[in-house]
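Hi everyone, sorry if this is the wrong subforum. Our group has a chain we'd like a structural model of before ordering constructs, and none of us has done structure prediction before. Sequence below.
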Amino acid sequence: QLRGLCSFLQLSTCPENLLVRFCSWLMALTPDLGYKSAAVLAEQLFLRRVLSLAQPPSRHLMAALTSFCSKYSQPFCQVLVAAVLQEPGEGTEQTKLVCELVEECLEPDCVRVVLSQVLEMPLSEKLLPVVQAVLGRQEVLLPELFDLLVLTLCRQAPAFATSLNYAKLVMAMLTMYQSQV
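Answer:
Right subforum, don't worry. Here is the predicted structure as tokens:
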């Protein structure tokens, strides 16, 4: 029903200044939306816009994303961030956007969710900045997640022998988690 309502209201294509207003209205709702409703709205409001970014997002889109993400991080991560990470190709603007959201908006639990999502797929040059952004948050990683990260980085080392991003990532790991490494 919510998908139908979003389609009827054409929320996926509404102007971005109205999107900001709509998100402000959503944030004021009480009680909060349920997980499924928030996930549907994250998909309907943002997925198409974010996947089609060819340049940095407008300030209106960033305001709407930040607002929505601040209250509904879990469904946002499961729907939008997962789709961006799985999107084939470079996706430079999308990757920058995910990094910015990781650095500034997501709750610590969601930051760990993003890292686990990255580690579920083959590591690529596109995903290295996302891992770097996660590490930059300096969140405490669960031992299993940390071990998987170290193992993934070790296994992928030959594939990234000439990658500056990979070298930065390894240096960050050695600096931030020296005792655990």
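For your construct planning: DSSP finds ten helices and no strands in the chain. The chain has one domain: 1-177.
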